[in-house]
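Course exercise 7: structure representation. Students receive a sequence record and must write out the corresponding structure in token form. The form below is the worked example handed out in class, using Periplasmic binding protein-like II (734 residues). Read each field label carefully; the graders check that inputs and outputs are placed in the correct fields and that the protein name is recorded exactly as given.

STUDENT ID: A-19
EXERCISE PROTEIN: Periplasmic binding protein-like II
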Amino acid sequence: MTPSNSSTEMSNSQSIMESLLSKGSQKYEIYFYDNIYNYKFGRYMIDLNNYLPKEHIDLYASGIASEICYINNTKLDIHKLTSLPIKTSYTILYSNMELLKKYNKTIPKTWDELIETSEFIIEKENKTNLNLFPINGLLTDTETGTCSLYDFIYSCRNSTDSPFPPVTSDEFLHAIEKFKEMKDRIGSDDLFQKGAGFSIQAMYQKSALFIKYWNINMIPIYKMTNIPGLKEGISGTTIGGQNIGVAKFVSKERIEASVKVIKYLTSYDVRKNLTIKTGEYSAIPSLYDDPDVCKAVDCEFMKGFQFVQREFPSDKSYDDFSKEFRSKIYEYIFGNKTALQVTHELDRMNKFYYITFTNSLHGKLYGTFIFIILGILIASLALPFIPSLTIYYKCLPPVLWIISIFGTFLMFGLCFIEYGPVTPSKCQLRILLYSFGLSLNLLPIICQQVKRLHMVYPLWKRIQKNIYIILFSLLLINNVLYMFELLSPFLILKKVSKDFGNTKQCVSRTNLNKFINAIILIYEGLILMIVIILSIIGRKIEVMKIDSKFILISLYSTILSLIMIVILSTTNIDNYDARFIMMESLNIIFSISNHIIFFIVRPISLFLILKFSKDNSDIDIRLYTTSSTMTQSKKVNPSTNYINIARSNYSSDDMISIAISKSSSNENTHSKGLSNTSSKDYMIGKSLTLKTHSKDNIPSYILSTASSKDNIPNFILSNASSKENISSFKRQNI
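STUDENT ANSWER:
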């Protein structure tokens, strides 16, 4: 297929080809396409390395084919020959030899020579020939304009071995300044914006001293030479033309037949005969050492081309880049912007910005803050092992602590995801850290809350017996959802911003991907809801009240930050600095709030309350722990009237309550028995609860005390009717 057999205009031919090839169409075997689109169509072509003889490929190896016919990927070790040049176009300078000879001038070899020669001859000729102009610019709002800029900029590099100058280089800056100087000295805005039709007409009418244009049939008075440069011996010529390739979707037989056609059309003999008859440039360099060819064409002229391929960022569409590139430079050549402004904007246009630990103040500050927090998190892990602090960290068994802390560190990894370039793997990793981190952080809390509830509510016993199976099942659901997530990798959306710089962001590739993301979000929301419900129930139970309060505080901050993260992820924010700051702040809050509250805030709060309770007789504190065999008792100020319930020999599953409360009156209360004390709940052993409203609640128990001025009254609950020890009583005994 070629643009000529397309039923639409030339400008739509590329989109038609892409539509056919992207659908795997078998309608055509051989495709002709503009070589600039090799990056787009080459992936649909067979690798000619596997079909053509090596000696045939070597004919083109040292020429322009290496730049326009391959798809290279050094990481994957790919060097795919997608096509071969079938027609090559190039830009050259046409010089009016009649006028040059008339004024004894030579063909210019530098742009400064061209400007000086033009000024001299135009000044002389304008006395009799007002239609004569020095040179065209071809700076149109089409691909021709882009090619004209590439020609000129490439001709202003420092040496013949230098690559195309980067937009931030001095060569690039000097090149566009020289182009504007030439326009101002010997041309005009209108003249330099004229297109192809005007240029061809000017040559036939002999109204141009110099013309810069593509290779066409020779016009007698104009001589073709290489385009001048900023320095003598340096030139620049844009590579144009078409490649020929074979679609990989057709049958093996059709591929083999098509390869034979390509082998014939690109053979040495065919290209030689074509060059001799038409003077057309061939992409086989060795042809210009052939005496027969050199009799028909100027081989030295053909060898002198310094070709430049239109390079562009690999993560951009060429069409979009080309339009942005020329439009931006036109703002300097024809507008009011400075060359420095334009080069700076071109640099921003071609870059995609992201934050690193070194490239911005925000990155450095947040990086320092993150590592400080990480150090605090790691250091805080030692707190439960300090003997004097162990009592404050027994709200979870060691295994559940480890699981929860692992989830915290997974979530904290989100803070590092925001640094560096956006990649599909990072998009996947972000989902993993959010999902697994939150689940592992919260599921241990669910386990512990259920274990406590089953002591108070028998209906929870069945759940408690299977709690670890439930925990494993919930994590399995996480795994299954994430496996579905991996089936459809993320796409990277390129966001262009003229004011803040281009950025990239993760976008779901398919509706399945969007659906799975929504399911994961709903699933994590259900886990949060379960913890909230358990905590609300727990607030009604005396022995769970304090921990439930801390859990709810932690959940509120987690939910709020998660909602803000979802909103921020779906909001279009061009300022990547502001987006980074907001996202990083929310990730920090989301990841460490639970750990900070339970590892730091809760222990400090309990410590201060206990300390404060020595001077405030109205405080009622219960510290809940799970521990292996314990025999210690919490000491209190002996000068105040407190009840100290001794603890001994409780298993690791026992929930111990250290109840420190002031009795409702003075020591007379002790002698009168429990009937006169205020209503309090005490947990002994496996949630053995005594409601001391009346003596009827404990008909078989006698409260005895041994008072001492030097010691707190020790209350021992003994069984008057049975020899059984109090530690063996179950809840149902009461």
